[in-house]
Amino acid sequence: MATYLLRKPDKMAKPKRLGNSPNGMVIVSLTIALFLIGLCGLLTLNARKLTGLVKQNVEIQVYLENGLTSAKLDSIFKQVAKNDFVLVENNSPQINFTSKEVAARDFIKESGEDFRKLLGNNNPLHDLYSVKVKEEYFSEKNLKNIKNQLEKISGVHEVGYVENFVDEVNRNISKIYMVLSVFVGLLLFIIIILVNNTIKLSLYSQRMLIRSMQLVGATNGFIRKPFVIKGAIQGLISGFIACALLFASQQFAVYKVAELAVLQEPVKMLMLTGVVLILGLLIGVVSTFQSVDRYLRLSLDDLH
Question: What residues does the ABC3 transporter permease C-terminal domain cover (predicted)?
Answer without folding.
Answer: 182-290
